[in-house]
Every structure is written in C-alpha cells, then in structure tokens.
Amino acid sequence: MPLRRVVPYLMCLALSCMTFLAPLVNASDTSQHDLDLVAIERAANNLPRLHSLLIHQHGDMVYEQYFNGRDASQAANMKSASKSVISALVGIAIARGDIASLDQPVSDYFPDILADAAPAKRAITIENLLTMEAGLESTSNRNYGRWAVSDDWVRFVLEQPMVGTPGSDMIYSTGSTHLLSAIIERASGISTLEYAERHLTGPTGMNITYWSQDPQGVYFGGNNLEMRPRDMLKFGQLYLNGGEWGGRQLLSREWVEQSHSPHADSPRGQGRHYGYGWWLRDLAGMQVPVAWGYGGQLIFVVEPFDLVVVATADSQPGDGRYMQLRGIYDLVETHILAPLADR
C-alpha cells in the first residue's frame, strides 16, 4: 500500500481504538469528579474476588475497571439482584393493566393449585410476594436444594406450609419472586424473557445474555439472570431517572419511589429493610437502595448524589466470600458515599 494511504489508515485505526476504549476511565483521570479514584482503585485491588466496579455520576462514567481477568464484554450472573428486575417487570405489568393491582390475590393465577387451599394462603397478594411477606415457608437457604430439584417449582412454593401471616413478618424466599415470574407469564401470555425484551431491555438497550428456566419453562424469577456490568448500570440509571428512559416513562415514578421505600424490616440485622425487590441499607448516614446478589453482585442507586455504582464479583462459594461482600460495602461507603456526603 502506498505510504500516502498507510498514514491516514493508521490514523483512522488509532481513532477507532480510542473511541472503543473511551468508556474505560482509570484512576489517573481526575479532572471531572470529586472522588479520590486512586484510593478507590487501591481499595478495589485489595478485594481478591472482585470482577468489576463502575461509578456513574451526573451522566458521566467516573470510573470503570475490571479485575481478575474480567473485561467489559463478559456478563455477570446477577444472582438475587435478578429479583429487582422481576420487580420492575411487575411494575410495568401493573401500569399496562396486564396485572390488575398490587392487591390482586395470587390465587387468581393458580386456581389449579390453590382451589382448596386455606383462606390465609389464598389471601396472599402480589405485594406480599414483592415485599417477601407471603407467610409461606422459605424456599431459600436450607430449603433451596429440595426446591431446585423438584419437578414443579411453582407448585412446590405454593404447597409450602404457612409459617406467618401474609403482610406481616419478612421471610426471604426466592420462591416468592419466582411466583411473580410465573404470574407475568400467565397474565401476559408470553414468557417473562419476551416480556422483558418488549418492555424493559429492548427500550433501554440492555441485553440479557442468559436466564435459566424451571422444569416447566418459566424463567427463574429470583436468580440466574446474566447481564454485562454496563447493562446492570443502565438498569440502575432507569431507577435513578425515576423510571424514564429516552423520553419514555417505562416505570412510573410512583413505582420507583415505592420500590425504594421500606415495606419490611429485614431479619438479617439492623439498618436493613426491603422494598419491592430492592434492599435498603444504611450507608454513610443514608438509606441506600441496593439490588443485591449473592457473592457481591450489587447495584447502588443514590438519588441525592445522582449516582449509580455497580460491582460484580466471584459468586462461587469459598473462603473470603463474606469478607468480600463486606469489603465492597466498605469501599462504597468509605470511598464514594462518605466523601460525597462530606462535600
């Protein structure tokens, strides 16, 4: 190729590479933010199971780094942060009229299973499932394995004994959120994945790269939904923007507010509450909405600071998992929220 053609070609190639790499912001870029990115990166590098950390504020990517061999193209299993996505789909379904209301009894959708159930079980509502106050025996923790190997996940959940009164104490149960996925399918006539693509991920440009299904083909309502960290960030931004995206109101502002308001007190300790599929955690003197997933899959939405933080991490069981989660919370509180609060 003649030299006069090679030089322009190389310049164009260099510009293309710069454009591709532009979203990755490192600790040396300190010109347009109020955070100590060097301290943030130092803290992040001390977390051996961390996969990604993204900080987005005032419409700009302040920090985006990947660790332990991960990169921006790789999806993360959101684990129980999938529950926040299901909550969004329920909000959309209610706004569209596919689901009548939060007060609608779950028994309306499962007459084949609950026809002869006790009145207390037939009284469980959509809202009770969203707030983890269904009163059913949990299918998480010690019961998770038996549930996951059962032939019919929906029936298994609904046939659990009542151990509480609907609308009273919080009983964390992945089965409750899975029922919501099954309800979306029965209410809309299409799969939960297709419903998400039509009304949530499609309009925002998010991409679900994988989502497991139960033996009947219902998409897993409380686990195993995979997205890239940048797509998780978009999901957080949707809530930060009050449900609006690109001039369209995908979620009502009221739904966002109610999702991020405490409806149940967590039995896991003080300073933790539960909204509609979102945890609310006391951090830096604030109550911060968090989409939480096992092992450190986290989306923090901090409206007072116009801020979204995403973290993903190794979710495999093993030594250091609890310390890893605590370390991510400490990083976010100490190096991001506290400095912004001080200012």
TrEMBL record:
Q: Which residues form the Beta-lactamase-related domain?
A: 53-317
Please indicate if the UniProt record lists Mitochondrion as a keyword: no
**Record's keyword terms, sorted:** Signal
Q: What is this protein called?
A: Beta-lactamase-related domain-containing protein
In the UniProt record, the signal sequence range is 1-27
Is-annotated flag, keyword rRNA-binding? no
Q: Supply the InterPro entries for this chain.
A: Beta-lactam-related (IPR001466), Beta-lactam/transpept-like (IPR012338), Diverse_Enzym_Activities (IPR050789)
Organism, per UniProt?
Answer: Pseudohongiella nitratireducens
